[in-house]
Structure to design on (312 residues):
């Protein structure tokens, strides 16, 4: 009996997810910092997820400019590079985020927690000067990145700058904790990069260059939790996870270079420029499996330890 193509695709995706889960379980190690964790057993099983963000790098650009007036040459040079991730689209990133968030919420519910949303916490004084934001895909928070929040998820921001960047309060929200009667407040933020670019220039040689590498990494992953006056926990990976086999042109050395070559006796400043456009071609199934599997594994390890404090 011939297996339908759509079933084959599903089986391949499931296999990739299982492989990624096994791999990350062997390689992803967490470190935790905090105080008062052992007192969590005294707190009610209620959690308010204040923030849940996944940041995906989709583009990168860099430019180098050099001017020289040495004895051997007189002129300027510039080199620039623009790289875009292809093979995966915004709806795919939204689905990744939804999947991880739903798994995250279900983990709490499986331990008897009540998961509170913006609608559940009511009109708190703490948020009087805040703005309520709906779930969206936002490109204004970090150049080249898409910030994705789960569908149906709402959150507060301190304000929005003229450039569209959201303002958040860093650190323990003590006034919020006081108003919420010992409910645990939690924030989660994950970042995946794909492109590293480095620009350099030499005024002596009149050269400009941009070099780049392609490869999926997780440079930032943070889970913060607070409860009461004296409990705070922070989870991060011990080292930055790096992944292989996600991009077709992974390991390719990208380069843009130019040099001012006009002799000084000409009396004119000249300009030389090389502009390159590159793609970071990803395998969609591997990208989805890797990002989803890594975030789930991180959450599983962090929440397993956290639940342990409640269960003691």
């Amino acid at each position: 009996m011939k297996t339908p193509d759509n079933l084959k695709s599903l089986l391949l995706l499931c296999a990739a997810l299982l492989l990624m889960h096994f791999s990350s379980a062997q390689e992803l190690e967490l470190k935790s910092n905090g105080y008062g964790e052992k007192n969590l057993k005294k707190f009610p099983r209620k959690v308010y997820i204040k923030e849940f963000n996944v940041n995906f790098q989709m583009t990168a650009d860099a430019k180098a400019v050099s001017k020289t007036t040495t004895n051997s040459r007189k002129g300027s040079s510039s080199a620039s590079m623009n790289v875009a991730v292809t093979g995966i689209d915004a709806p795919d990133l939204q689905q990744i985020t939804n999947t991880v968030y739903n798994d995250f919420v279900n983990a709490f519910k499986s331990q008897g927690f009540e998961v509170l949303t913006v609608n559940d916490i009511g009109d708190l004084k703490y948020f009087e000067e805040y703005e309520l934001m709906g779930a969206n895909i936002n490109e204004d928070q970090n150049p080249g990145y898409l910030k994705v929040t789960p569908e149906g998820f709402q959150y507060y921001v301190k304000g929005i700058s003229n450039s569209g960047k959201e303002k958040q309060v860093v650190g323990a929200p003590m006034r919020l904790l006081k108003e919420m009667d010992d409910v645990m407040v939690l924030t989660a933020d994950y970042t995946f990069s794909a492109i590293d670019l480095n620009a350099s220039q030499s005024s002596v040689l009149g050269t400009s260059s941009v070099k780049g590498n392609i490869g999926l990494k997780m440079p930032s992953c943070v889970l913060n939790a607070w409860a009461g006056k004296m409990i705070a926990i922070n989870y991060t990976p011990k080292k930055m996870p790096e992944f292989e086999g996600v991009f077709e042109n992974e390991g390719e050395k990208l380069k843009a270079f130019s040099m001012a070559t006009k002799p000084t006796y000409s009396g004119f400043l000249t300009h030389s420029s090389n502009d390159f456009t590159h793609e970071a071609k990803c395998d969609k199934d591997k990208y989805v499996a890797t990002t989803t599997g890594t975030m789930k594994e991180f959450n599983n390890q962090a929440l397993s330890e956290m639940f342990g404090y409640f269960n003691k």
